[in-house]
Design brief:
The chain is α/β, with parallel strands linked by helices and 231 residues long. It is 34% helix and 28% strand. The protein has 8 helices and 10 strands. It has helices spanning 42-48, 79-85, 100-110, 117-130, 134-137, 150-163, 180-193, 206-212; strands spanning 4-13, 16-26, 31-35, 59-67, 70-71, 86-89, 168-172, 198-202, 215-220, 223-229. It has a 6-stranded mixed β-sheet, sandwiched between helices. The chain has a 4-stranded antiparallel β-sheet with strand order 2-1-4-5, covered by helices on one side. A hairpin with a 2-residue loop joins strand 4 and strand 5. Helix 3 crosses helix 4 (117-130), helix 3 (100-110) runs parallel beside helix 6 (150-163) and helix 6 packs parallel to helix 7. The protein is globular and about 50 Å long. The two termini are 23 Å apart. The mean pLDDT is 97. The site of one adenosine-5'-diphosphate has 13 residues, from strand 2 and helix 1. One of its GO terms (molecular function) is phosphate transmembrane transporter activity. This is Phosphate ABC transporter ATP-binding protein. InterPro entries: AAA+_ATPase, ABC_transporter-like_ATP-bd, ABC_transporter-like_CS, P-loop_NTPase, PstB-like. Keywords: ATP-binding, Nucleotide-binding, Phosphate transport, Transport.
């Protein structure tokens, strides 16, 4: 079955309805693009998939969202664990103001994924390799994660998400702050990660959706108006 499901999901910010009865499946074998004009609710809906809106006091979520069949809004859900299983990459690259190594090691340390330094080094190396960044940074892991180009910072953020062994990676307009060459690298990376992780990418760019996704969800005024194979 699908990695995630959403059924009749409605999201309010106070009296404002930002998402209206949206239902989708997020499979692992294809990349899903959320597309639509600014303000149509793409980002809101993406954020409900890992409870990122929990911190917005006015936000209220109705409907059912599952991860491997488990209700992610159940009171028994460990939200810290959920956000490792469902990783998020933002529009503006946001590495921690720490070393490249520490950007990757932080999550695995919190989640107890490495039993010693060798294992942590391996996680750091593997995560950076999967994000296509290892060869560029292997000789300067002590440099600050914020001292790299925008495209490298965004790949570092993808590596940071990968480091805690996620099942789903949510990307909210991950290329809109990047130049065309850095954008092409991220798009190439999404192709390489496809199948290993369930990937959802929010974009307002139809051409990008066509390049990176196999399934598209079109949003308009908070509603899912079209959903199917990317054409
Ligand atoms: P998109 O990602 O498609 O641009 P958003 O999900 O950001 O759309 O926004 C959907 C609607 O919800 C918009 O009308 C926006 O103004 C509103 N909205 C988004 N975030 C908040 C918030 N924190 N509080 C109140 N309204 C919000
Ligand atoms: P420091 O506290 O020394 O500044 P950093 O957080 O900057 O440490 O991270 C540097 C770390 O990267 C060191 O612990 C070092 O052992 C580790 N390291 C160096 N080379 C490699 C490598 N090839 N693979 C994995 N880890 C490495």
């Amino acid at each position: 079955g699908p990695k995630m499901t959403a059924r009749d999901v409605t999201v309010h910010y106070g009296p404002k309805k930002a998402i209206d009865k949206v239902s989708i499946d997020v499979p692992t074998d294809v990349v899903t693009a959320f597309i639509g004009p600014s303000g149509c609710g793409k980002s809101t809906f993406l954020r409900t998939l890992n409870r990122m809106n929990d911190t917005v006091a006015s936000a209220r979520v109705e409907g059912d969202i599952t991860l491997d069949g488990e209700d992610i809004y159940a009171t028994s859900m460990d939200v810290v664990q959920l956000r490792a299983r469902v990783g998020m990459v933002f529009q503006k690259p946001n590495p921690f103001p720490k070393s490249i190594y520490e950007n990757i090691a932080y999550g695995p340390r919190i989640h107890g994924l490495a039993s010693g330094k060798d294992e942590m080094d391996q996680i750091v190396e593997n995560s950076l390799r999967r994000a296509g960044l290892w060869d560029e940074v292997k000789d300067r892991l002590s440099d600050s994660g914020t001292a790299m180009s925008g495209g490298q910072q965004q790949r570092l953020c993808i590596a940071r998400a990968i480091a805690v062994d996620p099942e789903v990676i949510l990307m909210d307009e991950p290329c809109s702050a990047l130049d065309p060459i850095a954008t092409a690298k991220i798009e190439e990376l999404i192709h390489e990660l496809r199948g290993r992780y369930a990937i959802v990418i929010v974009t307002h760019n139809m051409q990008q959706a066509a390049r990176v996704s196999q399934r598209t969800a079109f949003f308009h005024l908070g509603q899912l108006v079209e959903y199917g194979e990317t054409s």
